[in-house]
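[PROTEIN RECORD]
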Amino acid sequence: MEQEVQNHEFSDLKEEKRQSSERDIEFLLDIPVELTVQLGKTKMLIKELLQLGQGSVVELEKLAGEPMEIMANSRLIAKGEVVVVNEKFGVRLTDIISPSERLSQLK
């Protein structure tokens, strides 16, 4: 018993794929990202931490004038310098980490 084979035409998927990727990008643009600026770091013992009081000075590993690290969700994305804008602190970006370097941080 032989069955008859019928040809079928499929619609072009490229248009649907393009619309889908545009929706995906729009979805990603609304995801919140936490930005932090890291002034510096230090390590201390718990007993030293407990001795801190008002007016105490904590020495950081960074030198004065060194660029600050700008982090997005705890990942380094740029470096910058402190500025004052309308009596508030801000950061002027001086160096953006390349996309390939950012991807290598994810590993």
